[in-house]
Every structure is written in C-alpha cells, then in structure tokens.
Design goal:
about 475 residues, alpha+beta, two-stranded antiparallel sheet, 15 helices, 10 strands, about 10% strand, globular
C-alpha cells in the first residue's frame, strides 16, 4: 500500500515500477518517462517545490511548468526545444497524474495539463482520385514475381494503415491474411497471389528482394527498398505529384470518404446524437458538421489529413489508454499511432460520432469522495476503478436500466453493459479508466448501431456512437 503523504518527486520511482509491472509498458517507453520526469523534478527543485505533495500541485503550477518548458534550451543545437518535445514532457506529467488517479491519490486531473498546439506543416500534394490510384496499381507487371510483390506492397500502402517499417517486418506466418477487418479484401487477394510464388523458398519475410537472373530469394526488403519501389511507380505513372510511402499508406481513406467520386469531408469535427441517459447534460464539445463547398469536385488531401490529425490530437487529449500490447492478438499488426489513426478516420468519415460531456461540479454525478459505504460490485482492478464501476452501475440502475458486468464484445469485454428494460434494442457499453485502443477500434469497426461510453475520469465522459454498416 502506498503512503499517500509522499511528495510528488518521491512517487516517481513507484510510478516507473507501476509502468513496468502493472502497465507492462515497453522498456523504451519507461526510459522516456524517466528522462522527462527528471526534468519535471528539476523544475520542482529550482522552483522551491521540492516538498510539494500531489494534492498541492495546482493548475497554476502546471501552467508555470509549461512556461518553463517553452524557454528550455536544447543542449545539442542551443535552440529552444520544439513544441513537440515540450508536449512529450507534458504527456509524461499527465501519465504520472493518471497513476495518482489509478491509486486513488488526490491530485490534479491529467486532462487539466494542457498540451501545446504544434506547428505542423503538411506537405502540399495533388489529390489522388480513384482513377489515378488504379492507374498506379496497374503499372507493376503482375506476370512476374517482382511485379506481384510490388503490387501487393502498393495495395497495402494505398488501402491499409500500415507504416513502411511495419510492412518491412511482416513475416509470412505472422499476419492473418484472412482477417478482413485488419487487411482490406483487395490487399488480401494480392498477398495470396504473391504468396503462391513463395512456396519453394525458406525466407520467413513476407516481402523479399530477388537476386540474379533466376530471381532467387535474397532476404527481407529494407525500408529504403520499399521507398524506391514507390518512387519507381510514381515516376512511371507520370503524375504531377510526389508522394512518399508515408503519404500513400493512408490513401485508403479516400475509399471510406468517396461516394460516387465526391468526397464528403467535414471542416469541423465531433458530430453528435442525443442519448436518453444524458440527464440534461450539454456537450462541452459539440459543433455542427459543415461539408466542404459543393463547388469543389474533391476535398484536398491536406483538408482530409488536417481533419484526421485534429481527431488524433483530440483522442490523445481525452482518453486514457492502456499500453499498445495489452490484450491484443499477436497475429495482428498494431501500434498506438496506427490505431489512433484508424479511429480518427472512422470519425472523419462519419462511421462513428463522438461527444464529450463535462460533468458540472455542482452535479457531482460520479464524485467518489462524496460517496459513503458504497457496495463494491467488482473485485478486479484498482480501488478507483472498482468504486467508479459501482457508482456508475448504481446511477443507471436508479434510472431503471439493467446492468451486466463485463459483457462480451466482438473483441474482449466491456466494463459494464447497460440495457433498457423498456426497449431491448437500447444497449450501450461502458469503459472506465484506461482502455485498449485496439479493443475500441475493433469494436467500433464491427459493431453497428452501438453506443460506447468511455469514462476516463470523474470530470467527464465521452460517447462514441458507431454507425458503421448502417443503411
């Protein structure tokens, strides 16, 4: 049991141990947290806050720390550290505050540590419509093994959300090519065609080089090799644009957004619907969607990319996630950035709708500190999680809903299932505290007309309404 009267600095080793043992984070991630929190500890010391306890760390102190970071000098180039790097420090502080929440230690809410708006330059690329994509895909000579390989690579880059490094590391036996939710149908078709030519070699890599006149298997392709393959076919296509593999890997969102060659894209985000269970709360972030002017035949790639990045940023700021490896099928290719991007694309394309609801302090809807003698309904998880599950469950039971603990989803289980006694079709699922991005994405992608409530903290909750496959 942790001593809840310790200083913030003295908690840092416990936090790092928690990341290793309970969160099962990668050593590289833990090392980064250690480095960034050392800077935070240094700032506390030079600010005469060495003895400050978690409950004493206020928003004002968080703002002063942000101001300190904005003036910090990079030792390598003697320049002020970038906003991106400043955000790494702030995200690490957020992670520490999340640890306090998990351990039921009174502290500032992680979400109250504001991140900086990064000055991100998006390359200006000519928009590729479906006809131009097909033109590029037809260039490889698929009567040859090299052409089949290149076609499969281009298909993955155009119609899936994998990074070049992930494609390089794919092996023949560790990708479930029958899983249609992870790899597109058309990509599966070309991977299968290519693999039929690979039945006689012993190379484990999915994509390999070919050496000599007999085109013998020559080992795994490198990142540079794939970049050169993309460059070759972009040059052959004679398109007036230059796109890197990193640009091409997300081109498949065009197919999500494209209806009769007219892209539907929104200037503003967070499209919402009302639920009966909201009890009069108004969304804290709710803006009506506006389509791009109908006079434009296509939305620009920059506009699409900008909206996706806005959604990724919003997701990062508002949900508390488990480590990338938690509970995932090892046959799937995954990473946090890819999963955030997949969820963001579902939001931008209108497949899921999101709303954030702040809980007014006067309502004290799920305020643990004001709940006495609560009946704990679940034995699993940390103290805060168990109490929140009990409080949220009682809240909906009082509103005449039926509650089910840990109901099965298409992937994994939710913390709570909430069912209307009057309308059997009115069902929603609740996740409390940290959540698995993989589980969110998979269930958003496969469970139509389903509502998910994510409750990261007591101060707010987020509604995700999955509209996928709705006709």
């Amino acid at each position: 049991m942790l001593n809840k009267n310790k200083t913030i600095i003295s908690y840092i080793p416990y936090f790092l141990e928690y990341c290793k043992i309970e969160k099962n984070l990668l050593p590289k991630t833990i090392k980064s947290y250690d480095i960034f929190l050392r800077q935070f500890a240094t700032w506390l010391k030079i600010s005469n806050l060495f003895d400050i306890r978690p409950e004493e760390f206020s928003i004002e102190y968080a703002e002063k720390y942000r101001d300190y970071l904005s003036k910090e000098i990079n030792g390598r180039n003697q320049q002020i550290i970038s906003k991106k790097t400043q955000n790494y420090y702030l995200i690490s502080l957020r992670a520490l505050l999340t640890f306090f929440v998990e351990k039921n230690i009174k502290s500032l809410s992680p979400i109250q540590v504001r991140l900086l708006k990064e000055d991100k330059k998006i390359p200006k690329n000519k928009f590729l419509n479906s006809e131009k994509i097909e033109l590029i895909l037809k260039i490889p000579d698929t009567l040859t093994v090299i052409g089949l390989r290149d076609r499969a690579i281009l298909e993955i880059l155009f119609f899936n959300s994998l990074k070049v490094g992930q494609i390089v590391n794919l092996n023949k036996n560790n990708i479930n090519i029958k899983e249609k939710h992870q790899i597109s149908k058309r990509s599966i078709k070309w991977i299968n065609k290519y693999l039929k030519t690979r039945q006689e070699d012993n190379e484990k890599a999915l994509f390999i080089s070919y050496k000599g006149p007999k085109k013998n298997a020559g080992g795994r392709l490198s990142t540079r090799s794939i970049e050169n393959i993309v460059k070759k076919y972009m040059t052959k296509s004679k398109l007036a644009t230059s796109l890197s593999p990193e640009n091409l890997r997300n081109i498949f969102i065009i197919n999500l957004l494209n209806q009769n060659d007219k892209i539907k894209i929104y200037d503003e985000i967070f499209n919402h619907q009302k639920l009966k269970i909201r009890n009069g709360y108004k969304p804290s972030e709710s803006r009506k969607n506006k389509r791009i002017s109908k006079t434009l035949p296509y939305a620009s790639w920059n506009t699409i990319e900008s909206n996706i990045n806005k959604e990724i940023k919003w997701l990062k700021e508002n949900i508390s996630v488990l480590s990338a490896e938690y509970g995932q099928n090892r046959n799937f290719v995954y990473c946090h950035d890819c999963l955030l991007r997949k969820i963001a694309i579902l939001i931008v394309s209108g497949e899921i709708e999101t709303t954030k609801f702040e809980i007014p302090q006067s309502k004290k809807l799920w305020n643990i500190s004001n709940v006495q003698n609560i009946k704990i309904i679940n034995k699993h998880g940390q103290e805060w999680h168990r109490k929140m599950m009990s409080i949220v469950s009682k809240y909906f039971e009082d509103k005449n809903y039926k509650i089910k603990l840990e109901p099965n989803l298409n992937y994994g289980r939710a913390d709570l299932g909430v069912y209307s006694k009057q309308n059997p079709k009115e069902i929603f699922y609740i996740e409390i505290g940290t959540v698995s991005l993989f589980k969110l994405w998979y269930n958003f992608s496969t469970m139509k007309n389903t509502t998910f409530l994510v409750i990261p903290f007591e101060e707010y909750f987020i509604e995700f309404s999955a509209k996928l496959n709705e006709k």
